[in-house]
């Protein structure tokens, strides 16, 4: 169970990192952007560490306050779910 969860979180983080990278590239080129809701859902699905790293690396989505708040609420929800799962497995 722990191994499967680790693989899921790593894959979700990589996918989320790539989505932020693509969105930043599109923003610079004036092309179609990835909706914020998609980025937030990827983070909520476990990819928030990749989203956090991408935000730091690309300086992307770092100033928009509603997005920042929702991002961190999703991260906290993930951490709470992981803590609960850890208790159940113990």
UniProtKB/TrEMBL annotation:
A Pfam family it matches: DUF1294
InterPro entries according to UniProt: Cold_shock_CspA, DUF1294
Molecular functions (GO terms): nucleic acid binding
UniProt entry tagged with the keyword Transmembrane: yes
Spans through the membrane: 37-55, 67-89
Keyword presence, Membrane: yes
Entry keywords, A to Z: Membrane, Transmembrane, Transmembrane helix
Protein name: DUF1294 domain-containing protein
Lineage: Bacteria, Pseudomonadati, Pseudomonadota, Betaproteobacteria, Neisseriales
């Amino acid at each position: 169970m722990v191994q499967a969860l680790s693989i899921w979180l790593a894959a979700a983080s990589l996918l989320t990192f790539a989505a932020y990278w693509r969105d930043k590239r599109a923003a610079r080129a004036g092309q179609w952007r990835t909706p914020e809701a998609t980025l937030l859902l990827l983070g909520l699905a476990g990819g928030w560490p990749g989203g956090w790293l991408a935000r730091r690396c690309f300086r992307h989505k770092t100033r928009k306050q509603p997005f920042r708040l929702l991002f961190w609420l999703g991260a906290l929800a993930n951490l709470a779910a992981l803590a609960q799962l850890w208790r159940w497995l113990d």
